[in-house]
Structures are given as structure tokens and as C-alpha cells.
Amino acid sequence: MPMYVVGHKIPDSDSICGAIALAYLKNQIGEEAIAARLGEPSPETAFILERFGFEAPMYKEHYAGEQVYIVDHSELTQAPDDIAEATIVGIVDHHKLGDLTTSTPLECWIRPVGCSNTVIKMMYDFYNVEIPKDIAGIMMCAILSDTVIFKSPTCTTADIKCVEALAEIAGIEDYKALGMDMFKVKSAVEGTPVRDLVMRDFKDFNMNGNLVGIGQLEVIDLSVFDQVKAELEADIAALKEEGKRHSVLLLLTDIMKEGSEVLVVSDDADLTERAYGKASENGRVWLDGVLSRKKQVVPPLQEAFA
Fold first, then answer.
1. Cellular component terms, GO, for this chain's entry (predicted)?
2. Using H for helix, E for strand and C for coil, what is the string for the chain?
3. Model confidence band, residue 190 (pLDDT cutoffs 50, 70, 90)
4. Where in the chain is CATH 3.90.1640.10?
5. What is the CATH superfamily name and number for domain 194-305?
6. 191-206 confidence digits (pLDDT tens)
């Protein structure tokens, strides 16, 4: 029986590119694997896949009775809805350890690096498997995306070295220029439905029994949101009520200014002040230097809920 390699709900580039790269590796070492996804690729991910000649992995919603290898998270809220009825055979991730549990032993590769594809590159090295040119390309792009072209505080020396090695395999001379092309795709928001923008990179977290949704939109100039910011605020308020969430935060991240404006709706009016030491005004707060949801947004927020 094959294993299905799948990332989180509302998949990002790391989740989808990682599923493809890890499924290929598993097949090369004699473990039958199929790459899958839990949602539609983002515009950035679609750009990466097209650039290196890939189709999106198969869309598969149900995994009861299947073997599953989880990529880019270990959170119950981000896993398939029927994950409790599946057998988790492995996890590869770069986030905090979440609340997924297993009934049998599993393979687990979790490293404090900027991207799951960095960890997958380490797995290729461990198994001494050659990385094909096209897979090296999508892995490289996923790392550039997650590390914000090395600007993110999550970026490590390992991420940089992996990008350099993967770029050489893929035949990409100017990988930073390709990274900027990816972020230009991310910045093209005009004409996109507001709900699609809010959900483009959105994750739910269980914080001490409170459901908290955090979305992030990374662009090269925040002025692209000037005409739609009020609509974004209205939509996250609706999303909060629809999902019975305690709070919803939407990070509008400017990768050039290296900071984020956070739009927030919450049952706790003092949430951002307790978490980040800055009070929100009319549901907005600027957090200078904040680029990473994983490292700079989620941990202090969880402490505020402790």
C-alpha cells in the first residue's frame, strides 16, 4: 500500500513542493509514495510549478485507512479531517512540535531551519539519492519563499547552503532574481477576491483551547492593499464568526521594509499589547521587523494565551 505525502490545509509552496520532493525520494529508496495536496496551489506555487514543468500533486481530501507522511506541520488543525483514522508513518517539518499523535512508531525529521525543503535536502543527502534538476528547482524556490529570500529571522546557514547547492543542480545562476519574481507574483493582488486573499496563506492554531486563525500576505509594497484593506478587515471579522474563532490576525508583510501591519479581530481587545507589547488601534498595528509567522508571531501569541 502506498503512502500519501501531503502538507497542510491551504498549502503553501513549501507544503506542495515538499510533497513532490519527498514522494520522489521515497520512491527512489523503495518505499511507494504518492504526492498529494489538501487545497489549491497559491499563485506563487503555480508559478514555481510551471517554471520547472510540474503539475500540481493530486487533490485528496480523505485519508482514512491510508498511510500518510505529513509535510510542513504537525498540527491537528492543519491535517486532513480524518487523520485520526489514518496511519501517520512520518513527519518532516520545521515548526514547533504540534498536537498530532500516533499509535505506532514513525519516522520524524524536524529541524529548526527556515523551510521543510531544507530538511528534505538533508534527507536526500542522508540516503545518498541524486536530486533531479527540476525537483532541485522547486525545492530551492520553496526555501527562498519560506525564508523571504534569506531576510526572515528563521533563515539559517543550512537554508542558504541548501539553496546554493540546489541552484547549482537546477542550473539557476541568479536565484535571488528568481526569488524576487516569485514575490512579484505574490504582490499581484488586484482583481483577486478578498476571501481568496485572506485564505491564501492561512493557518488555524489551537492556543490553550482557543482557535486562532493567522493569515499572511507577503508583498514588495504594502500600497497594493490601499484599496482593499477595509474589505480585508471586514472579511477576517466574518471569518472569525464563521469558524467560531477567538481571534483572527492577518499579516500584511512588506518584505522590502521588513515589517508587518497586522489586522486583528479578537475577543480580547488587549491581545496584541499582551503578545507583542504594542496595542492595536482600530484593529491595526505595525510590527517592525516582523516577517515570520512561525518565529515572531505564533510563539508570543501562544504565551499570551497561556
1. cytoplasm
2. CCEEEECCCCCCHHHHHHHHHHHHHHHHCCCCEEEEECCCCCHHHHHHHHHCCCCCCEECCCCCCCEEEEECCCCHHHCCCCHHHCEEEEEEECCCCCCCCCCCCCEEEECCCCCHHHHHHHHHHHHCCCCCHHHHHHHHHHHHHHCCCCCCCCCCHHHHHHHHHHHHHHCCCCHHHHHHHHHHHHHCCCCCCHHHHHCCCEEEEEECCEEEEEEEEEECCHHHHCCCHHHHHHHHHHHHHHCCCCEEEEEEEECCCCEEEEEEEECCCCHHHHHHCCCCECCEEEEECCCCHHHHHHHHHHHHHC
3. confident
4. 3-184
5. DHHA2 domain (3.10.310.20)
6. 999 999 999 999 999 9
